[in-house]
Amino acid sequence: MSSGLLSNALSGLNAANTALSVSGNNVANSATEGYSRQAIQLATAPGHLNGVAVSNVDRVVNSFYNDDIWRTSSDLAFYNGLQSYLGYAEELMGTSSLNFNDAISQVTGALNSALAQPESRAYRQEVLSSADALVNKMSQINGALADQRGKLSKEMTQTASSISYSLRKLADYNDRIALAVAKGEPTAELEDNRELLVTQLSSYIGIATTNHEDGTLDISTVNGAPLLIGTKAADLAVNGTDVSLTLGKQVFRLTDNIGGSMGGLIAADTEVLQPTVASLNNILSQLSDNVNGVLAQGFDLNGNPGTPLFSYDANDPLGTFAVSDSVTIDSLAFIGGKDDGSGNWVAAGGIGDNSNIANLIDVFDNQSGDYSLLIGRLASKSNENQSSVTTAQSLNDNAVQTRDNLSGVNLDEEASNILYYQQMYQANAKVISTADQTFQTLLAMF
User: Fold this and answer.
1) Please, what sign has the CA dihedral across residues 389, 391, 396, 401?
2) Alpha-carbon distance 99 to 76, whole Å?
3) In total, how many domains does the chain have?
């Protein structure tokens, strides 16, 4: 009987000691980023009245909670990555110093002034100067947008480098965890560090994960492109604003639906910068064609048909928009034209005729609508995206809180556990003392 008591008490003593070590480790790591608390699992030892056994020491985690953190982290980073460029484009297009509509108003103002004296060189110079001002504003907008695309490419390159580095580190953790599992060694610290790294990765790019029995973790993008398979990590590369992923001989082109900050940066290019440039290209080419078309129907001070006011390259209207080299003060075709009845287009009046100025004013007045629509679209998308940022932040905070409620260290709970296992330790020590006294009493009887 004494032998059984000693055996039972000793197993309880060892279990209590292990439990105290686990709780002590939890308390020590309560402020460690990414640490998941551990819990001891006890089971009745095999056989009859053989005491207790420590069956396992588990990390207290829930894969669904982690998935929720990674998903919301990816969403938040996507909207934040997009917002910086979206907000800039909105501000750039709407600023008064570079506003297209304001510049158009200056041109129409100069044309209205010229109505009184269409032959006045001063008024004609004012029209050319206002046209130059319009061109300069568009040139500044083009330069600002080009700078944004350059900045975007650099940020994409840095993000791609961070993703590639994280994947290589994760491949190393997979290797170390698989080796530890094979040897039966503890993996809690390695798994904590790996999960922390996966959380960081999820802010760069949306991910899906698959766990394997050997402890390894495979990772892919949300649309299935492989990022990590066992110990093989993909590599990301950026060319301009095109992003590609390579794993082995497989190459995948990434689009904005990959999520994370990389997805947000791609969306900034495809949904903000490129469409903005395309809209401005259309606005300027249409303006140039319409204005030049009206001038072609008029006549200048020398009685010659009008020459173009604006020029541009059809492949890059915004980047090449300019006042034509051929236009001069005298060549502005303010004099209207008419059919002389014989099919010939001739001047409608002398140098004091202003009928073509009215046509030019109509053309310029009709150009402001598309630019206003562009600003409106940017403002609407910016407001919508800011709302998405707020929602994503709230969802991510809730996901982190839910995970921490389960996996984080609660010092009050650990203090209670330490007191409980301390009492368990003392009780088993008392059993050992009692068993020893019983044994000594039995010896004294012989």
Assistant:
1) positive
2) 32
3) 2
In a domain, 164, yes or no: no
Domain boundary among 331, 361, 379: 379
Report how far Cα 167 is from the mean position of its chain's Cα atoms: 18
Phi, psi of 56 (to 5 degrees): -170, 160
Which residues have a Cβ under 8 Å from the Cβ of 180 and sit 6 or more positions away?
Answer: 186, 187, 190, 215
Q: Are residues 367 and 297 in the same domain?
A: yes
Q: How far apart are CA 215 and CA 187, in angstroms?
A: 9
- The answer on 366 and 306 residing in a single domain is yes
Q: What angle do CA 184, 185, 188 make, to 5 degrees?
A: 125
- Whether residue 368 lies inside any domain: the answer is yes
Domain boundary pick from 336, 360, 379: 379
Mean pLDDT by runs of 10 across the 446 residues of the chain is 73 90 92 91 84 89 94 96 93 85 93 93 95 95 95 95 97 97 93 96 96 95 94 94 92 91 95 95 96 95 93 96 94 91 85 92 88 92 95 96 93 93 90 76 70
Is 426 contained in some domain?
Answer: yes
| C-alpha closest to that of 24 among 322, 389, 350, 422 | 422
Owning domain of residue 41: 2-60+408-444
pLDDT of residue 2: 55
pTM above threshold 0.85:
yes
Whether residue 244 contacts residue 221, with contact meaning beta carbons closer than 8 Å, is answered with no
